[in-house]
Amino acid sequence: xxxxxxxxxxxxxxxxxxxxxxxxxxxxxxxxxxxxxxxxxxxxxxxxxxxxxxxxxxxxxxxxxxxxxxxxxxxxxxxxxxxxxxxxxxxxxxxxxxxxxxxxxxxxxxxxxxxxxxxxxxxxxxxxxxxxxxxxxxxxxxxxxxxxxxxxxxxxxxxxxxxxxxxxxxxxxxxxxxxxxxxxxxxxxxxxxxxxxxxxxxxxxxxxxxxxxxxxxxxxxxxxxxxxxxxxxxxxxxxxxxxxxxxxxxxxxxxxxxxxxxxxxxxxxxxxxxxxxxxxxxxxxxxxxxxxxxxxxxxxxxxxxxxxxxx
Length: 311
Description:
- This protein is α/β, with parallel strands linked by helices.
- It has 3 domains: 5-89, Arc Repressor Mutant, subunit A, CATH 1.10.10.10; 94-164 and 270-306, 3-Layer(aba) Sandwich (D-Maltodextrin-Binding Protein, domain 2); 167-267, Periplasmic binding protein-like II (D-Maltodextrin-Binding Protein, domain 2, 3-Layer(aba) Sandwich), CATH 3.40.190.10.
- The chain contains 12 helices and 9 strands.
- Strands 1, 2, 3, 4, 7, 8 and 9 form a 7-stranded mixed β-sheet that branches. A two-stranded parallel sheet has the order 5-6.
- Helix 8 links the parallel strand 5 (192-197) and strand 6.
- It starts with a helix and ends in a 5-residue tail after the last helix.
- The relative contact order is 0.13.
């Protein structure tokens, strides 16, 4: 049962009925009336024009409109205060060594760390970025507490959690003959020049697997050690590539290169959180893991970019 006249008032305004508010807050109708009456007495002003339980159209007075604006702010501040006090009384301190393979490390890890640091300011965080295989081996050697990777992880001593889906797309230079096509088939990809990541990269493993499955003949290939370099090579006109949509979202918006759909195929893979299986996790690692597994990373990324944080 809620005994908070401010919250009750805001709920009445948003649900537009006293009876609905009573149901929502597990109150009797008389309790809702009583709490609104106390507020009006304290403010020495009427908040509603027709405060009837049976009213189908509840209207705020001018005083009610003013008070609603500030009541929302009061509730938000109360929530923030409770959160800060909770963090103060349950302070997690220590250090965290977190790694990421290049794609997820450069485009996902920064905002995951930003979100974590906001909740746990007492934790010192050190990040490492390398290709998937190097990050996996660092976790196995206990050089990292936890890591985010793309690509297959086939080690029995590593615990794996899928955290989100990644879309792989085909990108081509704007001046490339394929750029004129509305949609590509596997036949269109024969005898092309490909830009590939280095061996050990999750993106390279994904590209190699598809090229083999589709029976594609690669006329020539160039290998680069990062997604950023692959992207720039495609923009420069060197060849075509399969990349995560994450790494080219800005360039696609700016029309610096072209993405092509492949007929009958939507290419996806999983991003994973990995940690040593047989090592007892400390409080910091557990907090980081719980936050990642409990949040929608896409939503978090959009929230941070709206705040002007460029990730």
